[in-house]
Design brief:
Blueprint lengths: L1 H59 L5 H10 L26 E2 L11 E2 L4 E5 L7 H9 L4 E5 L13 H14 L6 E4 L11 H21 L3 E4 L2 E2 L6 H18 L4 E5 L7 E2 L3 H10 L6 E6 H7 L6 H15 L4 E6 L1 E2 L10 E2 L8 H8 L8 E4 L8 H12 L2
Parallel strand pairs: 3-4, 3-14, 4-5, 6-8, 8-10, 10-11, 11-14
Antiparallel strand pairs: 1-2, 7-9, 12-13
Helix pairs in contact: 3-4, 5-6, 6-7, 7-9
Length: 400
């Protein structure tokens, strides 16, 4: 009988032991499951907050009534019109939604992938005196996370070929300084006019565009910014826009991957690109849309009549940019205050906070996630040796 009791006790202990193990395993599974759920909730919460911020920013920009918007949508299509005599009609363009801090480079079928960049990349246009690699050193010295530069002398059509040694020195300097190709925005020479009515000027401009895109490729760069062009008062807006698009298409055919970035202008004289509809007109005629983008110059926009000095005006401009051009095409920014008044049509840059745009406008830009992950380049007057360093610090302080 004692033996039976001992056997029964041992059996009870074994059952209890198995139950404990099962409970421990179950407890671990529950803990893991809870952690997974917490992680999912956290990710959902982050995504929700991001969407909420984005939604609020867009709601503020809805300056036009739904009735007017419906009216424009019914008109549909894009019309390039005379700047002097005809009104603008918003095109019927499908909006592309992107998460704040995610830089969409068009679409998956357009060759380039999404670049998840979550910070502001502020820099300045720096000198290439002494060699292209010196631009990297200058950018580091001013505390820049991005920079712009000319690829050669911008005062003449002809330029000596880029040497292999110079290209390697530049790429090595960028690698050591951790400058991504997406943070560098080269600027085309000012002599170029890819919409020129003069055949000789047009031919030279197209040859220069090809040459500079090839230089970008040899330097490992993926963006190239230039002024679209001008009618020179001798051809129609439509003809000039067509010539600019044709110039881009020809350059794309002779190069591989560099994105041609059109800069908005100030509506000075006969220049093209002061109105977003003109930029859209060029983009519509570019065959490879994965290789075209826009650089938004704050001074030019203000001089062209976009009231970015006020919060409401800034949101209206951004809403129009998204509707007419598309945020997916925003590839860079030129950060400049303006010496001239709103709508003056004068391309006169001023230092940050010293002009008619004012500090608060740049504070809005610095806190807007739509500008994350793209090069934002200062082109303000060089009034002192450390002016860019001061302005970069000033801009980053605004983002907090």
């Amino acid at each position: 009988m004692r033996r039976s009791v001992r056997l029964a006790a041992r059996a009870i202990e074994e059952v209890a032991s198995q139950n404990n193990k099962a409970l421990q395993t179950s407890g671990q599974a529950i803990t893991i499951n809870l952690k997974e759920k917490e992680g999912n909730y956290s990710r959902k919460e982050t995504s929700s907050k991001s969407e909420t911020r984005k939604s609020k920013a867009r709601k503020r920009a809805r300056a036009k009534s739904s009735t007017e918007q419906d009216h424009n949508e019914k008109k549909g299509g894009y019309l390039i019109k005379s700047v002097a005599t005809e009104e603008k009609v918003k095109p019927e363009i499908k909006r592309v939604k992107t998460e704040p801090g995610v830089h969409a480079t068009i679409k998956s079928e357009d060759k380039l992938n999404f670049q998840p960049l979550h910070e502001k990349l502020i820099g300045a246009h720096v000198s290439i005196s002494g060699g292209l690699h010196n631009a990297v050193s200058e950018a580091l010295a001013i505390g820049a996370k991005a920079f712009g530069m000319f690829l050669r002398s911008q005062r003449q059509w002809m330029s000596k070929p880029l040497q292999d040694k110079d290209a390697e020195l530049f790429k090595e300097a960028c690698s050591k300084a951790n400058f991504s190709p997406h943070s560098i925005l080269p600027h085309g020479i000012y002599l170029m006019n890819c919409g020129s009515p003069d055949e000789e000027t047009l031919s030279k401009s197209r040859a220069t565009l090809v040459d500079e895109l090839k230089r970008c490729e040899r330097l490992g760069l993926c963006l190239y910014n230039f002024h679209p062009g001008s009618t020179c008062g001798k051809i129609t807006l439509e003809e000039s826009v067509g010539r600019i698009a044709e110039s881009i298409n020809q350059a794309h055919a002779e190069t591989k991957y560099v994105v041609t970035v059109l800069e908005n202008m100030s509506c000075q004289g006969n220049t093209i690109g002061g109105k977003f509809e003109e930029l859209r007109g060029i983009i519509d005629q570019v065959q490879d849309k994965s290789r075209v983008g826009v650089c938004l110059d704050t001074c030019h926009a203000f001089a062209a009549g976009y009231d970015i000095a006020s919060e409401r005006g800034f949101e209206i401009m951004m809403d129009e940019f998204e509707t007419i051009v598309g945020l997916k095409y925003l590839r860079g920014v030129h950060l400049n205050d303006s010496k001239g008044d709103l709508g003056c049509h004068l391309d006169r840059h001023e230092n940050i906070g010293k002009g008619k745009i004012g500090v608060e406008a740049f504070r809005r830009v610095m806190r807007d996630p739509r500008f994350n992950g793209i090069p934002m380049i200062l082109e303000t007057p060089y009034v002192s040796e450390n002016i860019y360093q001061k302005e970069i610090k000033q801009l980053y302080a605004m983002s907090t």
